[in-house]
Structure formats: structure tokens, C-alpha cells
Amino acid sequence: MVRSVAKVFMSGRSLAVRILRSSWFDVPEVFIVRKGDFVVLTPRRARTWSRFFGECACPDFALDRKASQRGQKRDVFNSRYMLDTDIASYVIRGTDNDLNRRIVAHAGCLCMRSITHHELLCGARMKGSPRLEATIAALEDLVPVVEFSSAAADRAAAIRASLDLAGKTIGVMDALIAASTITEGFTLVTNNTSHFSRIGGLALANWRTAK
Question: What is the pTM of this model?
């Protein structure tokens, strides 16, 4: 890695950096990730799935959910499938070709919940990986993030209470994701179908195993 010095200055009300020609980007936008005193800039190129899997995927990413317990951007109102955190992590790895093909085939019909955004970002920051944070941002450029609603909160409370009383407890994050999927009338894409099948009224799909 070659280190160079760049001039920092004010441009209107914004702070700007004059980057040397040797480090110029060939894109109009970049992702910015700050880690302590380090600021990492990566090109915002992932406007197609082929670019995402070719340039952004992180094959070694594995999410520790116990520790951690966004051209082709789409309108959430066109969505029909919600990716859970587990499936989103497989998409980030980009190593499951069958899953990748199904993701591309359903482009424009996908979304994630803000809960999943939280879990992915938490995992990346615990690993101290600016590159992984940039990959998550690239994914969310293709898969809209839906905010968690009060209606989903009410449904999640009912789900958790019902399962706890029946001795079939699931994680808090899973209950929140399931509840928001039901309230939106979507299908949850997950690799944990046996886990989520405890929840009545939740439509499920597993694109890692379906033929």
C-alpha cells in the first residue's frame, strides 16, 4: 500500500479532500466508512447484481448472531420477498451460485428489514472490517431496507408471548423479522425454515435448497 498526503479544505459548508490523480475514482459516488482515525472510500459500483457478486462479495463473512443479538435500487412497494439475516449473510459471501441466481431472478421484488441491517452492521463492526461495511452498503443499494413499524412491534409481542407460553421460544430478532414480514404480507426467505415454521401465518422460502 502506497501512502500519500492530500490537502483537506472547506468547500462551502462541506469538508473536502483533494485526492491525487493516481488515486482518482472512475465513479460519481463512493461509500465512506470511518474506523477510528481511518476513513475508507470505496467505489459505489454495485448497481447490478453481477457487479455486486463480482466486486463486492465477502466470501469469508460469517455472522455471529449471538454476539450481534441498501443501476437497480427498487421501491419497497414492489417487494414480495424479505431476506432474513442468515440469507443476507450468504448473499454477502456470494459463494452459493444457486442462491445468487435466485436473488438475481427476483431482483426488484426483494427487501430487508432494518433489524437485518442492524445485525449485519453490528457483525461487520465487531470484526472491524470497513470493507464488509462497504459491502453491506452495496447490498442495501440493491435491496431496500424497510423500517420497523408499530404494527410489526404489536405482532412481534404476540408471537413471542405465544411461543414462550408454548415452550417454543425463538430469538428476539427472529420474532421481530417474522412479525414485520407477516404485517407486510411478504414471504420470508430464510435458511432456517424449521426454526421459523413455529410461527403461524408466516410464508417461508429457502432459496438455498429449493430446486
Answer: 0.68
All three cell numbers of 29 = 459516488
Largest interatomic CA distance in the chain: 64
Query: Which CATH number applies to 7-42?
Result: 2.10.260
- The CA distances from residue 85 to 32, 39, 56, in Å, are 23, 27, 18
* pLDDT (tens digit per residue) in 146-164: 888 899 999 999 999 999 9
Q: Please name the helix (run of DSSP H) or strand (run of DSSP E) that holds residue 113, with its range, or none.
A: strand 110-113
Q: Judge whether 65 and 174 are in contact, CB under 8 Å.
A: no
For residue 189 the three cell numbers come to 426467505
Cell numbers placing 75: 421501491
The fourth-level CATH superfamily of domain 46-211 is 5'-nuclease (3.40.50.1010)
CB 145 within 8 Å of CB 114? yes
173 membership: H or E segment, kind and range: helix 172-184
